[in-house]
Amino acid sequence: MGLFGFGKKKEIDTAKSDANKKRIRELFNGVIEDGDSWKVVYGYGLNIKNSSYIIARKTTYTYTSLIIGYRESDMSIALLQTTPELEGCSDAEYFNKDSIKKAKISTGMYTIYHQGGMMAGYTQFATLEENDEKFLAYVYQPDEYKDFDEFFKKFAAK
User: Residue 64 is part of a domain; what is its CATH number?
Assistant: First the structure.
């Protein structure tokens, strides 16, 4: 053990993580038809807002919890907004390779550019191997994280 607990390995609460993964699957299957044909991973969106005042500058970070479903058979992604407590979720926003302009991974964020003109916009989100309960649901998902990362690389390839 290191000095003052540094170097100490973090304990993983697999029971809590597994319960949250089960709830994520239940929410996803409740919204998506044939939900079991999709793989799911927990992720988040991040909105950064900067405000400048006379003497100070303020930066506000807003996290959005997401359930990310993906399916290789038709190269599709479904995003559902949820809460960190996994109390419910929104309707799905679907993306497939034919309905997007392009997709890329940059600085750990997955970005999907919408079709249309210059102002069509984009959707950006991320996943982590492990989330704590400070801002997001507690989920330990190293395998799901790696699987989604590999899938998105194929999804982004033209």
Answer: 2.30.29
